[in-house]
């Protein structure tokens, strides 16, 4: 019985070590995309739509034109003054890094969902 359990234990221990070593890349990736999302949110708060638009991939530029980005203005104005980032997370889905950031404002909090392609272009932008 001991001869069977020892190899199983060793394999399980090796799997745990391998899984733990991969988290460093995940943490740095998470940090990178959260930082980029926070920059996008800051640009949106400043109504700097041109700079946000410049970060769009080709499909996003077709879906949301620069002229239509002004639709964010009333939404962010009714939120009040930006206070801080409350929560954030990144999930890799279908080749995109989907970043969800909860931003606190004086009147109403907003949830930003910003998807980035693997070459760090904005592939999706949603504000709730």
Provide a brief overview of the structure.
The protein is of the alpha+beta class and 128 residues long. The protein is built from five helices and four strands, in the order αααααββββ. The protein is globular, with a radius of gyration of 20 Å.
Describe the structure.
Residues 1-21 form the signal peptide. With 128 residues, this protein is α+β, with helices and mostly antiparallel strands. The chain has a single domain, classed as Nuclear Transport Factor 2, Chain: A. It has 5 helices and 4 strands; from the N terminus they run αααααββββ. It has a 4-stranded antiparallel β-sheet with strand order 1-2-3-4. The longest helix is centred in the N-terminal third of the chain and has 23 residues, at 23-45. It is globular. It starts with a helix and ends with a strand.
Highlighted features:
DUF3887 domain-containing protein; Nuclear Transport Factor 2, Chain: A; 4-stranded antiparallel sheet; alpha+beta; 27% strand
Topology:
Blueprint: H1 2-21, H2 23-45, H3 49-54, H4 58-63, H5 72-79, E1 82-93, E2 96-105, E3 110-116, E4 122-127
Antiparallel strand pairs: 1-2, 2-3, 3-4
Label the CATH architecture. Roll
Shape: globular
- The mean pLDDT is 85
- How many helices does DSSP assign? 5
Task: State the end-to-end distance.
Answer: 57 Å
CATH topology: Nuclear Transport Factor 2, Chain: A
The portion of residues forming beta strands comes to: 25-35%
Give the CATH class: Alpha Beta
Poorly predicted sequence stretches spanning 5 or more consecutive residues: 1-25
Signal peptide: 1-21
Organism: Ornithinibacillus caprae
Keywords: Signal
InterPro entries: DUF3887
């Amino acid at each position: 019985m001991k001869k069977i359990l020892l190899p199983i234990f060793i394999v399980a221990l090796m799997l745990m070590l391998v899984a733990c070593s991969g988290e460093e890349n995940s943490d740095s990736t998470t940090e990178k995309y959260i930082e980029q999302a926070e920059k996008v949110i800051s640009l949106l708060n400043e109504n700097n739509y041109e700079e946000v638009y410049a970060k769009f991939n080709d499909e996003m530029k077709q879906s949301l034109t620069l002229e239509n980005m002004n639709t964010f203005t009333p939404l962010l104005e009714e939120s009040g003054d930006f206070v801080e980032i409350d929560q954030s997370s990144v999930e890799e889905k279908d080749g995109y890094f989907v970043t969800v950031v909860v931003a606190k404002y004086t009147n109403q909090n907003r949830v930003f969902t910003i998807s980035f392609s693997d070459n760090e272009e904005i592939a999706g932008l949603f504000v709730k």
